[in-house]
Amino acid sequence: MKLSDLATRLDLKVYTAGTPLERPVLGGYASDLLSDVIGHGRKDDLWVTMQIHPNIVAVAVLKELAGIVLVNGREPAPETLQQAEREGVPVLGTRLGAFELVGRLYGLGVKGS
Amino acid sequence: MAAEDVYRQEFPVKGGDFAKAGTVACRIKELLKDLGLDVKTVRRAAIAAYEAEMNVIMYAWQGRMDLAVSPEEVRITVDDQGPGIADIELAMTEGYSTATPEMRELGFGAGMGLPNIKRNSDVFHVDSQTGQGTRLEIIIRTNGHKP
Lengths: 113, 147
Ligand SMILES: Nc1ncnc2c1ncn2[C@@H]1O[C@H](COP(=O)(O)OP(=O)(O)O)[C@@H](O)[C@H]1O
Ligand SMILES: [Mg+2]
What we know:
heterodimer; A: alpha/beta; Udp-n-acetylmuramoylalanyl-d-glutamate--2,6- Diaminopimelate Ligase, Chain: A, domain 1; 5 strands; B: Heat Shock Protein 90; 5 helices; binds adenosine-5'-diphosphate; binds magnesium ion
């Protein structure tokens, strides 16, 4: 499913402007530990996390993730947003907690490895 | 420069510079992609470079990363001036970390950095002098997918 479809279906807020929402999401990974995502995330995964600092963008770029969803209503730090827009990494958000969001993503066919 | 190297570049890394964290790894990834290496080699090198860069930023005062690419392999050598690693075997244990609470709150300090490097490289050597610094030698073979 495309990121834009997931955003609509799950009412996700899109924080970044001009980042590619048409790219396919092939799976998902949920973690707040950066090395865990570096080690276990896969290309085109949607990353569910509560980390909001700029370093999440580098992780997403390196792993070629489809995008980042911030949970619990957390908003990206301003520098995170700037970097994400510069690097073309979509950053979205939801008021849901990680457990609930992952459950709904799974229900829409976004699975882990 | 070894005769067979088709590419070589040096990157400085500043200890404590979290704002720039990951920049060197991203540059290395772009360079390897541009050299035409296969995606798997690029991916493994990017992971190893990221974890090595992060460790210099988190634990050392300053360091340098050297990238050398030959048709057979990608070599990343990391030299830092810092506290060094007293017990390398312990440091290599998955989950072991001396990261500060502040770093952990940001999601660093999973204790998976060195294991991630080991898993994604074909040769991995760690040398360290306590109180002086640490040197990593990382080699990723291109397995015939020549740049
Ligand atoms: N360049 C370095 N200089 C000093 N200590 C280091 C260095 N790299 C790693 N270490 C030590 O090894 C431990 C494990 O490193 P690593 O596996 O990358 O996990 P983490 O960075 O999450 O702690 C670190 O917590 C630190 O104590
Ligand atoms: Mg580390």
